[in-house]
Amino acid sequence: MLTRRGMLKTFGGLFAAGFASSAYAVGIEPLMRLRTTTYRITPPGWPEGQKLRIVALADIHACEPWMTARRIGDICRYANDLGGDMIVLLGDYISSMRAVWRQVPPEMWAAELSVLHAPLGVHAILGNHDWWDDLDAQAAGGGETVSHRELRKAGIAIYSNRAARIEAATGAFWLAGLEDQLALRPGRQWNRFGYIGLDDLPGTLAQVTDDAPLLLLAHEPDIFPRVPPRVSLTLSGHTHGGQVRLLGYSPMVPSAYGNRFAYGHVIEEGRHLCVSGGLGCSIAPVRFGSPPEIMVVDLG
Fold first, then answer.
1. 12 φ, ψ to 5°?
2. Helix (H/G/I), strand (E/B), else coil: 288
3. pTM > 0.90
């Protein structure tokens, strides 16, 4: 029989556990944890002997105290030590989150990103928050954002519906990057979210002129069902793994497909997608079961 004292102990224990979990989700996992997740893949269309290590950083969301300029610099220096042949940045450098002390100015986070280096270079796409928080770019309905300009000043190659052929010691490959699929806030042209995408998948892939393997960078993974088999691997961010993830499930994912493309290595009809859990936070400074991560992909 459960006594009154026993009930109080039970409720007290549940309250303490809830408080501890909340404190961890806000004060420890977003701020103090950083994991490296590695996928080893030889997808169709990628030559087995053609080795390539990709180090991917996604969803930095620079702001204080959650993702300070100093922390961004520390993450970049750690990323340099992972032995990547190439480093890719998967968008969302700017934070729209309200629960912050202050935003990190673009010139500051870009200066920290400038320390990144790899033998085959550092390559970047933009994300939805890079567009949403640039009022001039929103008013213009396209063009360039502050993030475009600051990344370029930092010496980072930007892919805005562009494909480039890269020569590596083990063989050449193509790297293609899409402009953001949710770039402009609601207007006359609507997609399922009410935002206008500036991505051009057919036009980007049309720039590929030979049979060398092809990698695609796309901030949101929702485009994956439309990616043709010609693409060996698609790399995405945006979802943050749901930020809260329990037993492989996230209750809230910013995707029309829910948990289908929320996180990790996804294979569908022989096509491969890797979705990073990202580094920063969006909407709320909470992470539980989905710590900040650097994604490493070993091909071949």
1. -65, -40
2. strand
3. no
